[in-house]
Amino acid sequence: MTTITAAQVKELRDKTGAGMMDCKAALTETKGDLEQAVDWLRKKGLSKAAKKADRVAADGLIGVVAAGTKGAVVEVNSETDFVARNDKFQDLVRQIASLAPAAGGDLAKLLAAKFPGKSISVDEHVKEMIATIGENMSVRRTAALEVTEGLVASYIHNRVADGVGKIGVLVGLESKGKADKLADIGRQLALHIAAANPQAVSADQLDKAVIERERQVYLEQAKATGKAAEFIDKMVEGRLRKEFFGQVVLMQQTFMGPSSDGKMTVEQYVKAEEKAAGSPVKVTKFVRYALGEGIDKKEGDFASEVAKLAKGG
């Protein structure tokens, strides 16, 4: 029988992050061969990860990177905020985000990319982390933004550490203007987007079905006023423009930046800053990721779960 030393167990544990008893079992099974033991743990780890896959991962972090004319954002989920505050998890999100611009918004491509410093893919490394940390994790989504000339600005709200937080924003500015001024405009717009949560840059980018649904609501309300038919359409279109578009269209929203008087729209703010930039500025697109949006979290009854455990259930 092969004798397994404490030094061998420590070396394998340092290499894999697995538990001490698991490392000893792996070395025993592989007769002390370190590389085979690593593979043995990976296989066991993948098995454990699969068992955790049905647990809802609705916490985690948003990772954002932006440099020059390119930027990207990713959402990596964990089950608890405790893990999201872990340095290893934060580094995981940063590393994945660093690969996101090259993936161009393609999640499958990002998951298949080689993880930095490893010989395995992002997807495989995440599964290893699941086995090591003991929580379900997933790279949920990614988006990329690029402009031909100008810059992509970014902002992270509820920042937890460098490059990661709870809300991530990218905004593309197409312009030949001064880089420092464009960066300032971009940051102000990204801050606004984080707070105001618009749906599109302009009204023509909105889903036509969404616009029509709002129009029908306003139409019924207008008819209820008893106004003459010739005034109804004007009332509906006026409300659609001022109320609905003013709420969800970026360029028509009231600008929330420090230079705003509460009346200036985002479009007016950008126009006013063009002179200082030295060139026209066009907002091409934005991306706003808020952690966990759209995920149905399973709500558990903690008290009943504890009682069940106490009874041996």
Order of helices and strands: HHHEEHHHHEEEEHHHHEH
Q: Please mark out the parts with pLDDT under 50 across 5 or more consecutive residues, or reply none.
A: 46-54, 299-313
Mean pLDDT: 86
Structural class: alpha+beta
CATH topology of the largest domain: Tetrahydropterin Synthase, Chain A
* Major sheet size, sense and barrel closure: 4 strands, antiparallel
Name the CATH homologous superfamily of the largest domain: Elongation factor Ts, dimerisation domain
Radius of gyration: 26 Å
Q: How many β strands by DSSP?
A: 7
Largest beta sheet: what is the strand line-up? 3-2-1-5
CATH architecture of the largest domain: 2-Layer Sandwich
**Proportion in helices:** 40-55%
CATH level-1 class of the largest domain: Alpha Beta
Share of residues in strands: 15-25%
Distance between the termini: 40 Å
Figure out the total of helices: 12
Count of the separate structural domains: 3
Name the overall outline.
elongated
Brief sketch in words of this structure:
The chain is an alpha+beta fold.
